[in-house]
TrEMBL record:
<dbReference type="InterPro" id="IPR016181">
    <property type="entry name" value="Acyl_CoA_acyltransferase"/>
</dbReference>
<dbReference type="InterPro" id="IPR050832">
    <property type="entry name" value="Bact_Acetyltransf"/>
</dbReference>
<dbReference type="Pfam" id="PF00583">
    <property type="entry name" value="Acetyltransf_1"/>
</dbReference>
<dbReference type="InterPro" id="IPR000182">
    <property type="entry name" value="GNAT_dom"/>
</dbReference>
<feature type="domain" description="N-acetyltransferase">
    <location>
        <begin position="4"/>
        <end position="182"/>
    </location>
</feature>
<keyword id="KW-0808">Transferase</keyword>
<keyword id="KW-0012">Acyltransferase</keyword>
<protein>
    <submittedName>
        <fullName>GNAT family N-acetyltransferase</fullName>
        <ecNumber>2.3.1.-</ecNumber>
    </submittedName>
</protein>
<dbReference type="GO" id="GO:0016746">
    <property type="term" value="F:acyltransferase activity"/>
</dbReference>
Length: 187
């Protein structure tokens, strides 16, 4: 188990969050998404979006957390973003109020592959759950790529299971299937 901790993201973390997202997607999703789509992702554009999420979140219940590994120096190794569900959390044709006010949606939970299997994902998820409970959420949802067995196994190990919702993302004329997982946050 690595020495590490989780903390809220800071504005100075934004560039590293974008770099981690890009590096992780290019490794983890290389067999699920078209290569040219991954190659053309713009790190500066990602950083601008993360800057908005970190510096001016839509509500106090929207959070970006980072995982830090401690060694001779500290390294940002992953992050998690979550908040009340918006239309991106819904399944196709699902009504806008289907998930309810006590549901939180994970939009991202990524650990850079070179730092994987060292407990960072578990620390991120545990810290997020503590915050979700303090925010009054009783259920969490997350979309995963059907082919992302690592994320699905990780979340299943923490009690998450499919809720029956599915969709396919259109990524440059390629349909990429996703499943929505959920978990109760009640102690």
């Amino acid at each position: 188990m690595a020495l590490g901790y989780v903390r809220p993201a800071r504005p100075e973390d934004v560039a590293e969050i974008a770099r981690i997202q890009l590096a992780t997607w290019r490794v983890a999703y290389r067999r699920m998404l078209p290569k040219h789509v991954l190659d053309n992702l713009d790190e500066a554009w990602l950083a601008r979006n993360w800057s908005a999420a970190v510096e001016a979140p839509p509500s106090e219940r929207h959070r970006v957390l980072v995982a830090v590994e401690q060694a001779e120096q500290s390294y940002l190794v992953g992050f998690a973003a979550s908040g009340p569900p918006d239309e991106q959390a819904l399944a196709p044709n699902e009504p806008a109020d289907a998930l309810g006010p006590n549901v939180v949606a994970i939009t991202d939970l990524l650990i850079e592959p070179r730092w994987g299997r060292r407990g960072h994902g578990s620390r991120l998820l545990a810290a997020a759950v503590d915050l979700w409970r303090s925010d009054g959420f009783d259920t969490a949802v997350a979309w995963t790529f059907d082919g992302d067995t690592a994320t699905r196994k990780f979340l299943a190990g923490a009690g998450w299971e499919p809720d029956g919702a599915a969709r396919a993302l259109d990524v440059d004329d390629m349909l990429v299937p996703q499943l929505r997982l959920h978990v109760s946050l009640e102690a």
